[in-house]
Amino acid sequence: MHHQPVLLVIAHGSRDPRHAATVHALVRRVRSLRPGLRVETGFLDFNVPSVQGVLESLAAEGVRDVVALPLLLTRAFHAKADIPAVLRDAPRRLRIRQTEVLGPSPLLLSALERRLYEAGLTTVDKSSTGVVLASAGSTDPEAIAVIADIAREWWHTGWCAVRPAFASASLPRTEDAVRELRELGCSTVAVAPYVLAPGFLPDRIARGAAGADVLAGVLGPAPEVARVLLERYDAARSPRLAAVGA
């Protein structure tokens, strides 16, 4: 019998207990969408189990194939440097493929809209609503450019305007983007956090949204996010992708 690779979801980790709780809720959603798939969770920092610990346990069980999925929305430092480094230190018997990060994806735009409507926005408001696409921020120019591209793409779906904003490392801040949308004449201003789980930077986004009419929740275990995880898993199983360390 052919065994499908184990999906290892690699989360950043946080001192904020809401972070791990949200990651686990998302992983439960993934399991519910594909009941036969074994899904494990490992954290880079602050939370247990560690990624290294999960990999060692899987190797000890006799698992051979692992698909490692960075629970990240943009391809910044963690996806490019520290996650590959952790995977290179994995037990040699494991054959590991690292997936692409989650974003960008049309499903994530759907999840952002889901969260806005859950927060009280109505569909008839779209053309008069300006949206702040509020991300955690990064020092990586590629990650910043991707957020700007997503904002432009989302604007073309019918919003009054969409502006990117960042909680750290880059400008503008959420409150500045809210002010700009007011000055543009958008009658409703909404803030959509482009973040997966609660924590320090999402809290900063929320404070910056004080002048907005609507603040959406984090993406968290939205069904669309779970579907993106499975899309990335399926793509990484392609034999065209080289295994880490192979």
Automatic annotation (TrEMBL):
Give GO MF terms, alphabetically: lyase activity; metal ion binding
Q: Look up the domain of life of the source.
A: Bacteria
SUPFAM superfamilies for the chain: Chelatase
Entry keywords, A to Z: Lyase, Metal-binding
Fetch the InterPro entries from UniProt: CbiX-like (IPR002762), Sirohydro_Cobaltochel/CbiX (IPR050963)
An example of a Pfam family matching this protein is CbiX
What the entry lists under CDD domains is as follows: CbiX_SirB_C, CbiX_SirB_N
**Does the entry feature the keyword Metal-binding, yes or no?**
yes
Is Transport one of the keywords? Answer: no
What is the protein name given in its UniProt record? Sirohydrochlorin chelatase
Record the organism. Answer: Streptomyces aurantiogriseus
